[in-house]
Amino acid sequence: MSTLRRWLSLVRFSHSIFALPFALQGAWLAAGGVPTPRVLGLVVVCAVAARTAAMAFNRLVDRRIDAANPRTAGRELPAGLLSAGSVTALTLLSAAVFVGGAFTLSSLAGWLSFPVLAVLLGYSLVKRVSWTAHLVLGLALGLAPLGAWIAVRGNLQGDLLPILLMALAVLTWVAGFDLIYACQDADFDREAGLHSIPARFGQAGALRLSRVLHGLTVLALAVVAWRAELGWIYAASILGTAGLLGWEQSLVRPGDLLPGGPCLLHPERLGRRGPLRGNGPGHGPARHGRIAGLMARKATSAKDPAPDLEFRRLSERLASGLPPALVVRGEEGWYRHQAALRLVELANERGLEVCRHDTGDPEYRAASLLDDLAGGALFGGGRLVLVRGAGELLRKGSRHHSEAAVKAILARIERPGEDCIVLDAPSLRADSKVAKALAPQELLFSFRKLWDTPPPWKPDPRSVELVQWILGRARERGLKLKPEQAVYVAAATGNDLAALDGQLERAAQAGGTLEAAVVWDPGASPWAIAEQLVDGVAARAVMGLESLFKGGFVGKDGRREMAPEALVAMLGPAVSGKAREALAVARSGGPPRTGSPRQREAVAARVRLRSEADWARMVDDAAGLERRARSGPAVGVNDWAAFALRWRLEPQRRRR
Questions:
Q1: What one-character DSSP code corresponds to residue 304?
Q2: Is 420 helix (H, G, I), strand (E, B) or coil?
Q3: Of 70, 266, 287, 527, which alpha carbon lies 20 to 30 A from 652's?
Q4: Neighbour-count burial of 542, counting CB atoms closer than 10 A to its CB (0-12 exposed, 13-18 middle, 19+ buried)
């Protein structure tokens, strides 16, 4: 069954039903009603066979470029799920069925099937030489009603205006949607040496032409209804079609077209993916070199989706209820944290008891986790067990690995109940037992970092994922940002979504200029600032302190700590510890004895910056701030800024 599904997926067989109305409308117009069952059956067979031949041929000649395009790299041929020879056989078999069915209908239909087949197969090659490929795709589908007319009547006699206008309506309808869909690949097409209207005239020009084509679609259908006297029901359906087309066009804007976007009536739903590509004669080593380069640096794949799409998939899965277990993994802690918040919110809504464990917490106890995994809820109807740092729990050889916990988790997966286990891990091997158990159920959710550098073929920083995320998040907060301003925020903050979120929150609350509200480098850690303080780098330390106390600090779990007293509690011991270390080395008169060679070298260089007496006074100064902080919230950013100024060193003294 899996092999059959691959074949059906290759040609998008389930979408054949959307291509059939074109042919059936032509047959209906030709017969003046419902055709005979024999003719109707042969029309359906020919339509499905022709479409299958076209799809298989397209996938065959496109396999190299599909492998280079991140959006299509997971298809059957580039992924190695089907062989090129077998797809070639399917193409030939489908073409033979189409030609045979056409000759069975009539000799005229049979002979005309050859030029029709040439258009269907030739479309896959047009994009290499001309940007008119979208119109050729429309022509390929527009031939369906004409072919059905000939199948029913056996000739091209009678009033041909309605059927010709029907073919025109199909051509403009399909071409209009293909233009929208092709906007996704405009940059890729330029780099790969392929031709399309979006690549040639830009997204804005392509969308304007798409609207014109869809206007012609409605006009042609209206003339068909009038000329063929099809009645009020058909006329009402045209009004509905016009409304849908208008709504569809209102959803798309230049620069805001992503894979899986809002093209609900696009030819992809008809079984074609829009911009079809392939390799063929006339394209030498230069073009293959460009494609090879794209393959080497492709940005994403089916296994590495954009974080927002992955979060959307998680939300759709949770809409049907909490699963027995799931994994949220990846480098992007902000998305993992948002996923955990959503899961806890759902658990609270369902009255579940929430139990939290973190292998990075000094107070973490494996026995407590096992109790929560094995036992039942004390107060709720079930239990949600959230385990942060789950990679340490599942990875053999790690300090916190527990085979008993792994077995308990697998037992819950095999015998689901009311409970839910959430495993949060920055990294988790795909071959772990838990990952293998959850993968078939699609319960592994991976959140990679957003890309913050543009590709070489489009060096525009406004188009990168990070900037687009900032713009979307700003809209959610009611903050109007221009793309240039989003680039400024990204440059000031870096690729830290939690810090960026804090920047946008401050900007929304400030009510002033964005530049005044944004703090540069708010991701500074207390430990990095502590090094700057003891090294006497006053300017950088003061800037870091301002950033830390305004923007907070993001821990390894992706959570942001904003409370000033908590930040002081981290900063004080860090400064004291480094000062005491330097004092101890200065008093010993010898080299440092702990840490890696690089760490010992850094400490030795630091010790030479000050005398032993100065290090002793700094230790006392830092200890005094710590004592004041413990006695009450009397220590803040100003106190540590004053500390930085008291112990600043001139640049020439800091040279090591």
A1: B
A2: strand
A3: 527
A4: buried
Distance CA 46, CA 22 (A): 13
Among residues 446, 452, 391, the alpha carbon closest in space to that of 423 is found at 391
Which residues 6+ apart lie within 8 Å of 84 measured at CB? 60, 63, 77
Exposed, middle or buried by CB within 10 Å (0-12, 13-18, 19+), for 415?
Answer: exposed
Q: Using alpha carbons, select from 11, 12, 45, 47 the residue that is nearest to residue 26.
A: 47
Alpha-carbon distances of 70 from 91, 250, 294, 302, rounded to whole Å? 25, 27, 9, 8
Full DSSP string of 18-44: HHHHHHHHHHHHHHTSPPPHHHHHHHH
pLDDT tens digits along 324-361: 889 998 888 889 989 999 998 998 888 888 889 988 77
Residue 412 tokens, joined = 């819950």
Closest CA to 77 of 95, 91, 94, 64: 64
pTM (global) more than 0.90: no
pLDDT of residue 617: 92
Structure-token pair, residue 40: 């109707």
Task: Look up tokens 């010709």; give the residue.
Answer: 164
Contacts of 222 (CB under 8 A, 6+ apart): 235, 238
C-alpha 469/C-alpha 473 separation (Å) is 6
pLDDT at 554: 63
- What are the distances in angstroms from CA 233 to CA 159, 217, 229, 439? 22, 18, 11, 49
347 CB-near residues (< 8 Å, 6+ apart): 322, 354, 384, 420
Identify the three-state secondary structure at position 479.
coil
* DSSP symbol at 301: B
In the Cβ-directed half-sphere of 234, how many Cα atoms lie within 13 Å? 15
Q: 3-state SS of 43-107? A: HHHHHHHHHHHHHHHHHHHCHHHHHHCCCCCCCCCCCCCCCHHHHHHHHHHHHHHHHHHHHHHCH
Q: Which residues, 6+ apart, have CB-to-CB distance to 6 below 8 Å?
A: 76, 81, 82
Residue-wise pLDDT for 239-261, tens only, equals: 888 888 888 877 776 655 544 34
| CA dist., res. 334 & res. 170, Å (int) | 46
The single residue listed with the structure tokens 């060193």 is 649
What CA–CA distance (Å, rounded) separates 98 from 92? 10
